[in-house]
Amino acid sequence: MTGEPLYNPTYLQELESQGAETVKAIPTFRRYAFEQLQELVEKELSLKAWMQPLLSIEKIEKLLHLAWYLLCVNNPLSYATHWKQGIYRGVDSLPEIQAMLRSFDAEFLRLWGQRCLENFDEDKREIIFDLCSTASYQNHNPFLQYGYNRDIEALEQNTIILLAHGDIPLPYSFQILDGTMLSSKTIANVMDTLEADTDTVLMLNRRYFSIPRIQELVELGYQFIIRIPTRKRWLVQFIEEHREAIVEGTVLYDCKGRELKSLSLAAPFLEAESLTIHLYYDEQWRESQRSNLLSLLGRCKRELEFEVPLEEHARLYETYFKVRKRPNGSNRVSLSRDPLRTFEASQAGFWAVITNTGLSAEQALAKYEQRNDFEHRFNNLMNQEDCRVLHIQSPQYFPGRVFLQLVSEIIRQNVLEKLKETSYSLNQALFSVMDQQEVTFRENDTPYRSELNEQDKAIFRALGFAVEAGA
């Protein structure tokens, strides 16, 4: 309140016992390894030089600071005012963040897209990722103003279309849609806006799937990979016909290292269109679903016994249970069918994608996982804190927030490229880098660093810089 320091009584007593001439050691801490990583990425990507024709140096510094914040912390953007790490200039207030996001308007984004098109390799294949998850499923959000999804909840939704370049999915442009992408006309408009050609691979949401839409995409010359909704009756029959062959199919591994089985077959419709269906079987997923079912049925049984049914469990009550009244008025609940036998006959653990790209089952799986990764990270755009404090979902701020996430993804991809020959994840590398600090005392200006363990050294070598540790 007064601006004067208040010291612990014990500390004052120690100072008094040591004499008035005692010098207080005042430490300064710096995350030196993180700063070196930022400098290396800046040198390789030339982000400042790349953005300088479009933005001022001050704004570029703050933009990159926020992009690194999203990469390293992934908390709501409104918390970034408390994050002061790294080589770039930080932001001091929420109005400053809002002003930055507002400045990334339609004209800026148009110029950004043009600059990317002029400088990227034209020979590399492009991919369009349809991300349809940026809706708030906790409660209705008054700041979502870009349309509505097609689910029964009718929640407000923003749909983000990302355009990525090359075999490594490096996103560099985007478009925001009203609602979801459910027609070839919308696809044509998106590709025209993003200046993508028909060689672009469409990674579409499974909600898009229908046989007439697939036929239309083929006739228009589009390439696509789409996950097929599992409850399609023809797919259930198709899986049942080939169940044994799928379970004994080709072994491949997903991005988490889990073993899957796959089988690739021609689609049982539109035979002349060279459509391939890649069928997958995930045994771990199936076992997890079995355990979840048994646990859920146990809950349902208790709910019926204590007469506290839940609406979302109505189908399970009807399918698996019968209820009788005891003489004392309580419910007697028993199974009407064997849940394990029913489960064994189900398609749990099986899923499929359809494509005309000629990609193998493993390649198609990798593309689909990349789409899921994008969707998972872009989910941060709908957190309630930013919607409440920054009004992120309003039209004046939302495009800028998407652009900020885009820049963060570009940085992420650069760091991931450095780690691709190692077994270390991005989170492991960032944790190791952020954990290393250098302490300096005002009295002698000599920096002190702790010794690195072998894992830290290996991560630093993979990232491309050497850090000498020690006193």
Describe this structure in words.
This protein is of the alpha+beta class. The protein has three domains: 139 residues, no CATH class; 225 residues, Transposase Inhibitor Protein From Tn5, Chain A, domain 1; 59 residues, no CATH class. The chain is 43% helix and 17% strand. The chain has 18 helices and 14 strands. Strands 4-3-2-5-6-12-9-8-7 form a nine-stranded mixed sheet. A three-stranded antiparallel sheet has the order 1-13-14, with no helix packed on it. Strands 10-11 form a two-stranded antiparallel ribbon. A hairpin with a 5-residue loop joins β10 and β11. α4 crosses α16 and α5 packs across α16. About 4% of the residues have low confidence. It comes from Sphaerochaeta halotolerans. This is Transposase.
Write down the Rg: 28 Å
Instruction: Spell out the CATH superfamily of the largest domain.
Output: Transposase Inhibitor Protein From Tn5, Chain A, domain 1
Q: Which whole number gives the mean pLDDT?
A: 86
Q: So what's the CATH class of the largest domain?
A: Alpha Beta
Give the count of structural domains: 3
CATH topology of the largest domain: Transposase Inhibitor Protein From Tn5, Chain A, domain 1
Q: Can you name the CATH architecture of the largest domain?
A: Alpha-Beta Complex
Poorly predicted sequence stretches spanning 5 or more consecutive residues: 135-153
Major sheet details: 9 strands, mixed
Helix content: 40-55%
Strand content: 15-25%
Q: Structural class, from helix and strand content?
A: alpha+beta
How would you summarize the topology of this molecule?
Blueprint: H1 9-18, E1 27-30, H2 32-45, H3 47-51, H4 57-72, H5 94-103, H6 106-119, E2 126-134, E3 158-165, E4 170-177, H7 184-193, E5 201-204, H8 211-219, E6 223-227, H9 233-241, H10 243-247, E7 250-253, E8 259-266, E9 276-281, H11 283-305, H12 314-320, E10 321-325, E11 331-335, H13 339-344, E12 350-355, H14 361-378, H15 384-389, H16 398-419, H17 426-435, E13 438-441, E14 447-449, H18 454-463
Parallel strand pairs: 2-5, 5-6
Antiparallel strand pairs: 1-13, 2-3, 3-4, 6-12, 7-8, 8-9, 9-12, 10-11, 13-14
Helix pairs in contact: 2-17, 4-16, 5-16
Protein name: Transposase
Organism: Sphaerochaeta halotolerans
